[in-house]
UniProtKB/TrEMBL annotation:
This is GT23 domain-containing protein. It comes from Calicophoron daubneyi (Rumen fluke). GO terms for biological process: protein N-linked glycosylation. It comes from the Eukaryota. PROSITE patterns: GT23. The lineage of its organism: Eukaryota, Metazoa, Spiralia, Lophotrochozoa, Platyhelminthes.
C-alpha cells in the first residue's frame, strides 16, 4: 500500500500534546495505575505502572492488517517468531542527535554487551541444572541478539568485536536515521518496526533515556501469556526507568541515609535528572536535592481514578 492510499483510508485521532503534566497536577499522568485494577496488579506484576502503560501503548499502536502482516514477516525473518529454542536479547544503541544534543552520554558497545554476556551466562547455568534433572535436554545456548541502532558503526563494531554472537537485525532497513530526518514518514515507520521487534525479544539491554527503549520495554509487558511477568527483563546502561514529564515518583526508604537524616519508612520524591547514573537518583525532600544509591528506596505505586473527560 502506498503512502497516499494509506492516508486516505486511515482513521486518525490527533491527541493533544502535553509535556509538563506533573506541573499541571494531572492525576492520571504516568506512572499512575487505575484503582480498579491496582489490587490485582500489585500482586501479579513486579512493575504495575509499566504493565498498564504497555496495554495502552499496544492498543494505541495496533497495526492495520497489511502492516501487521509485514511485521509478522519481519519478525520471522529476524528469528523473533514465538517458538524459538534459545533466547534472543534485544540491544538498542541510541546515539546520533541524542548524543550530539547532549541529551545523553555516549556509551561504548562494550557497556551494553557486558550485560548481554551476563544474561547468557545465567541462562547457560539454568540449562545446565535442567540437564542434570533431564539428560535429554541439551545445555547448549545459542548466543543471539537482535541489534537496533541509529549509528551504522555499531553494526560493524558488533561484527568485529563479538563475532561469537549470532546477530539479527533489519538488514534492508537498519534504521540509520540522519540527525534532523527522524520525523520523516518513512523513518518513523522504521522506528515503529524496530520498537515492535525489540519488544519481541526475551531481554532488553539499552539506555532507558531513549524513548524507543522505554516503549519497547512497555510493549514487552503485553506478552504475559508467552513470557509471564516481564517487569525485570531489562537492563539499563544509563538511567532508571522513568516517564518523561510524568508525576514525581514517591519512594520509601528501606535503608537509613544518615547524611540527610532519612530513616527506614520515610518517603521522598524521586527526580530523574541524571540520565547517566543507573544506580542513583536525585531526590527532592524539603526542596533539597541529594544523590544516593537507588537500592536504598522502593518506589511506591501511584494509584488514581480514571476520568471520563480526558479526550478533548
Amino acid at each position: 500500500m502506498d503512502s497516499a492510499s494509506f492516508r486516505s483510508s486511515a482513521r486518525v485521532m490527533r491527541c493533544k500534546f502535553e509535556f509538563f503534566l506533573h506541573a499541571q497536577n494531572v492525576s492520571v499522568a504516568p506512572p499512575m495505575v487505575p484503582s480498579d485494577i491496582a489490587p490485582l496488579l500489585l500482586v501479579l506484576h513486579s512493575q504495575p505502572a509499566v504493565w498498564f502503560l504497555g496495554q495502552l501503548a499496544r492498543y494505541i499502536t495496533r497495526p492495520l492488517p497489511w502492516f501487521e502482516s509485514e511485521l509478522n514477516a519481519l519478525a520471522s525473518t529476524s528469528k523473533l517468531s514465538h517458538n524459538r529454542n534459545s533466547p534472543i536479547v534485544g540491544v538498542h544503541v541510541r546515539r546520533t542527535d541524542k548524543v550530539s544534543h547532549k541529551e545523553a552520554k555516549f556509551h561504548n558497545l562494550s557497556e551494553y554487551m557486558v550485560h548481554v554476556d551476563r544474561y547468557f551466562d545465567y541462562v547457560e547455568q539454568i540449562r545446565l541444572l535442567d540437564t542434570k534433572k533431564d539428560e535429554s535436554r541439551k545445555p547448549e545456548v545459542q548466543r543471539q541478539i537482535y541489534l537496533a541502532s541509529d549509528d551504522i558503526s555499531v553494526f560493524s563494531d558488533m561484527k568485529r568485536q563479538y563475532s561469537h554472537y549470532i546477530v539479527h537485525n533489519m538488514t534492508k532497513n537498519k534504521l540509520i536515521v540522519a540527525a534532523g530526518g527522524r520525523f520523516q514518514t518513512d523513518k518513523q515507520t522504521h522506528i515503529a518496526i524496530e520498537i515492535y521487534l525489540l519488544s519481541l525479544t526475551d531481554y532488553i539491554v539499552c539506555t532507558v533515556s531513549s524513548n524507543v527503549c522505554r516503549v519497547a520495554y512497555e510493549l514487552m509487558q503485553t506478552r504475559q501469556s508467552e513470557i509471564g511477568d516481564a517487569g525485570e527483563l531489562i537492563q539499563t546502561v544509563d538511567t532508571s526507568y522513568f516517564w518523561d514529564s510524568g508525576q514525581l515518583i514517591k519512594c520509601e526508604m528501606v535503608q537509613n541515609e544518615e547524611t540527610m537524616n532519612l530513616h527506614t519508612g520515610d518517603v521522598v520524591d524521586v527526580w530523574n535528572g541524571n540520565l547517566n547514573a543507573p544506580f542513583e537518583h536525585q531526590r527532592l525532600r524539603n526542596k533539597t536535592y541529594f544523590v544516593d544509591p537507588s537500592y536504598k528506596c522502593v518506589p511506591r505505586t501511584i494509584i488514581g481514578e480514571m476520568q471520563d473527560n480526558l479526550v478533548e
